[in-house]
Amino acid sequence: MGILSHTVGIFTHPDREWQKIREDHDSVGHLFLTHVPILALIPVVSFYIGVTQFGFDVGDTHRKLTPGSALSLSILTYAAILAGVYIFGEFIHWMARTYGVEGDEDTLRYESHALAVFVTTPIFLVGFVGLYPDLWVNAVVTLLAACYSIYLLYEGIPILMNIDKERAFMYASSVVTIGLVLLVIVRIGTVILWLLGFQPIYTD
Predict the structure, then answer these.
(1) Nearest one of 160, 121, 172, 106 to 6, comparing CA atoms
(2) Per-residue pLDDT at 117 exceeds 70
(3) What string of DSSP letters covers 27-49?
(4) E-strand stretches of the chain
(5) Structure pTM?
(6) Which residues cross the membrane (predicted)?
(7) Which candidate, 118, 182, 102, places its Cα nearest to that of 156?
């Protein structure tokens, strides 16, 4: 499987693309490295440019971050994204047997991580909105991307995991819950890092 393969298909014809992803039988490492490190750069680089070059409003004040501060936060965000997607895939794998997914462990891990990689793809791709770091614009666009990600999840699990729709619905609902928990953990981790000295530093 090549770099960023299936990325377009997951938007244009998700049913057929999930079936192609299932048939790939790629390794988890190759799948992860040819997608997540590249896609994760979109929101990170966009955020860096947005907060250092264009700035954002804090109350009645327009602020920008210093390049050094923005770089530190961008690196931490990038690392958190990579770790988050991988852990998400591991949780999907951990829950698979509970919902009766069959197959050998290598195939099951690949399918679980493929699900994690491709359902988070819409959120990565809309990361370009970070070039215009307005809170409400970013929130609305990210919410729309998250909705499509959830649609992909419910659409993809019965195909990728080859289980009936009733079990797939319960499985997908559990995966959504795990995703929300991971999001909360990332938010809490961000606050902790701020308290440890990585808080934003604004230009004069």
Answers:
(1) 121
(2) yes
(3) -HHHHHHTTHHHHTHHHHHHHHH
(4) 56-58, 61-63
(5) 0.91
(6) 28-49, 69-89, 110-129, 135-154, 175-196
(7) 118
